[in-house]
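G.,

No rush on this.
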Amino acid sequence: MAPDVETVTAELTAMAAADHQGARRANSDDPAEQLAWRHLTAQHADRLSEIMDAHGWPTADLFGEDAARAAWLIAQHADRQLDVQRRALLLMEQAVANGTASPRDLAFLRDRTLVNEGRKQIYGTQIAGVKDGTPIPWPCEDPERMDERRKEVGIPPFTEYVAQFSPA
């Protein structure tokens, strides 16, 4: 592994660890914690943008599975930097077409980007909230075919997916 690739790999995995640790602050009642989350995700998105400038989409074959997954997570959480999300989406589409990225991860990023653009999602991966204990997805394009599309990219049926959000 080249030194630059090793450095980027370590950076991406460290950013994912910080993301996991900080994610609880995203919906905190404390505005300072929410602001800290926004600052963290903005820093990560800025760095991911630089990485994409230098390397394109960070694929598992170049950076390893953990770093590739980390890049996806960072793009997924770049909600306030739609330009970074859109660019990651385009690069990831090319990587999926080349067989070097996950169609499942691409589906999640596509839905997230569509929702952030105020458009209907395709795979039903983005949950708007919970009402009476039931997760409610953001609006979805052609909801009757949603599970069919989910299956094509390796995502479980919607009812199985939302069960993980429901209290046991």
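When you get to it, here's the other one too:
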Amino acid sequence: MPIVHKLIEIETTAGINIHNITPAIEKIVFNTGISNGQVLVFSRHTTTALAINEDEERLLEDIKVFLSKLFPESERYLHNDLHLRKNIPEDEPINAHSHLMAMMLNNNEIIPIVDGRLALGTYQSVLFFELDGARKRTILCQIWGE
């Protein structure tokens, strides 16, 4: 059984932003020639997340508001006391709230592949969440099957 690894790269903006990566995953799956199997989609960062949900503009705004209420950036977090931490990079951001959001969401999703297509429901999309700052992000897709 073949196993294929591919990366999706995304340039994000600051704050919470949500990207529909379903078309990129579909293209990768199509190019593997795998008809039936699974694809693991894995975020390689501690302040990002993945979810399967509806890609509807107003719902996405609701999600952003909900996450911001649960983990307000203005709250006091120990992780943000940079002067008390050891061995931190010079460009270390104040981002404890982003780490906490990521912990409450998923960092991976597994999607079945049936007849060469992602077996998502009618309104389901694979969504990538940037929860921190503007950066280049990478998502690993691992596809296996026959």
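The longest strand covers residues 136-145. The mean pLDDT is 97.

Enjoy the weekend,
O.
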